[in-house]
Amino acid sequence: MKKMYFGAALIVTLLLSVAAWADQSATKDECVSKCYEAAALINSKGVAEAIKQIGNAKGPFVWKDSYVFLMNLDGKMLAHPMQPELTQLPHCLLITDPTDKAIFVNFVNTAKNPGHGWIEYMWPRPGKNSPSQKVTYVYRVPGKDLFVAAGVYVGGMMF
């Protein structure tokens, strides 16, 4: 009888752990919403204010296990809250993932035409060195040569 209670308790604990993990993981819908929110900020408050807010690791565009970043159509990273060093590069177009996918070229091409979409690639989770599978939503800011993007890591929590 004690084994049955222990087994049931173990199952309940596992289910609660999965539910807690799900609450900590961003969803694709949240990524799309945050991109729209960031684009609205750019159009209402300007690029300088957006760079400040999007680039802030403790700001409104970092949530759960995701974040928004901002680039221009030339491949220049303007704001990245988790890897601000990317903003120091002249562009990010030569960066590839471990499968040799030109990640940022794909982002720029998607932002140019059709203006939004999802890109799959490998990218390190913040604080990690080894890459994980990620899918990112790219959204061109209406009326601008800029785009914002946010993604989810596939298969587990980021932090």
Write the layout of secondary structure elements.
Blueprint (H helix, E strand, L loop, with lengths): L1 H23 L3 H18 L1 H8 L7 E2 L2 E7 L4 E3 L23 H10 L3 E9 L6 E10 L5 E8 L6
Antiparallel strand pairs: 1-2, 2-3, 2-6, 4-5, 5-6
Considering DSSP H and I runs of 4 or more, what fraction of the residues is helical? 25-40%
**So, CATH architecture?**
2-Layer Sandwich
Q: What are the secondary-structure elements, in order, as H or E?
A: HHHEEEHEEE
Gap between N and C termini: 38 Å
**Count of distinct strands:** 6
What is the CATH H-level superfamily?
PAS domain
Low-confidence stretches: 6-22
Roughly how many Å is the radius of gyration? 18 Å
Quickly name the level 1 CATH class.
Alpha Beta
Task: Give a quick account of the main beta sheet: strands, pairing sense, barrel closure.
Answer: 6 strands, antiparallel
Overall pLDDT level: 87
Structural class: alpha+beta
Describe the structure.
With 159 residues, the protein is α+β, with helices and mostly antiparallel strands. Helix content is 37%, strand content 25%. It contains four helices and six strands; from the N terminus they run αααβββαβββ. Strand 2 and strand 3 form a beta hairpin. Helix 2 runs antiparallel to helix 3. Residues 6-22 have low confidence and may be disordered.
In short:
The chain is 37% helix and 25% strand. It has 159 residues and is an alpha+beta fold. Residues 6-22 have low confidence and may be disordered.
Record keyword descriptors for this entry.
single chain, 159 residues, alpha+beta, Beta-Lactamase, six-stranded antiparallel β-sheet, 37% helix, globular
